[in-house]
Please model this.
Amino acid sequence: MMKFATLLRKPPEWMLLDGPHRDIVITSRVRLARNLDGPAFPGFAKKEDRTTVMQELQPVVEGLPEMKDGFSEDLGALDAIRKQVLVEKHLISREQAAKSGGSAAVINRDQSLSIMINEEDHLRMQSIRSGLDLRVAYAALDRVDEELDGLVRFAFHPRFGYLTACPTNLGTGMRASAMLHLPGLVLSEQVNQVIAAVNKIGLAVRGLYGEGTEALANLFQISNQHTLGEREPEIIARLERVIEQIINHERNARRKLVEDQPHKVLDHVGRAYAALRYAHILESKEALTQLSMLRLGSDLGILPSDLGRTIDTLLVEIQPAHLQINSQRKLGPEERDVLRAETLRQRLAGVPEPRPESLQPPVDPEPPVI
Amino acid sequence: MQCDVCKQNKATVFLTQIEKGKMQKVNLCEACAHAKGVADPKGFALVEMLHGFGHGEKVATQPQERTCPNCGMTQTTFRKTGRLGCGACYQTFGEGMDQLLKAMHKGVRHTGRVPGWAKVVGRDNDRVEDLRVRLEEAVAAERYEEAGRLRDEIRQLTPPETAV
Model:
């Protein structure tokens, strides 16, 4: 099995690949909620029943071919910082990080699949891919679901579908989402209109770390709200169509900004470059905002095009738990801000200065993937 | 502040209602307030809305509380937490579930993936749909004897809480 240190050191597969529309869509994720037929759901089960379920499921999940040489740990065996690192890497939920014994996380070697045991449901399985690639993310998860279906008996009702602790997940138990970087829509003050429109058609918009979190770094998670009444491929196709439209809006907004307000764009990117290269104290929120502008600069040709990947890595690395685990001690907020600035200065040291003369509108979108 | 119903939009409608001496508060966004008919105070009961149950059902006056025989979850706890205790709870608290689900989802019937063990049951469902169509035809054509037979057959194949 993989050690925690390896998990921490190894970048996840999605970060190394360039999925479709990678300039705007950072990742696509799909998760399935499943429960065993019979035992009470984790939130209501007695401790010993929860433990029994975990003892049954953990070896089954670890034994899946996809999980070979992966990471598997009882949450009770991980300290708060290690759990938070997994949250910051989007491998477990904040809800699961709050749990201790009787709950486990199993993660595959390339960190594209993670399975939480005894979160809100007995099983929460997640698949994550680079760019807009929901169908492939679902296919990977569907295989795991199929394998598990042969090994355990899932709670299911012919009319309600897969039974879940919360009725909002009932039916398919599927939540598909994409993380979108929308600086163009934010700078042109159109993002709220887009969010309102997306909400109206039964999709949810959330911040960087899920429900109730702020949209930091101009990152927005768009996901399906409904899980019952539609087939999985229908839900995914609908979500994908909406996301493709948002991508077009974002590209148009960027194009218009470059054409109408080039100085505003150059100013934002220039200030971001200066702050990230030379600041000595950076709060999380400011660092994330500036990284977003740097990424925009890279997308628009003012900064090297391969900078995007470094930025996506940094978005995770400058989070509090990552800073603390890399410095191997607990840090107060002020110390973290100093260390964050230091990390950013070091990691961005080789980046050449912005080249205003290279500013160019986004290239026309690739033909839609059908 | 977040809307208590959709948990997403900003709450702009703040309601306080006193029922049987108990105060209930709820924060809603405009869309949910409209969808729940908050604009019409006569047709609106806060407690019921929070749990998505029908207007006809009385929340506080049930003499004996419904409890899940499998896990021991009670109606009160379910309503308070919005979470069910186990799979069997969907059977136990099935009444009123449709309304709850209608407010949350695209439909009230699962059409997606089915686990291996339930595929046999799935075939029964297809048969029920077929029987229902034939029943409607029989009724329309006033073939009441046949309609009665079809109805009995449907009852046999349908779990109690889904019977019509």
Remarks:
- The first helix of chain A runs from residue 4 to 9.
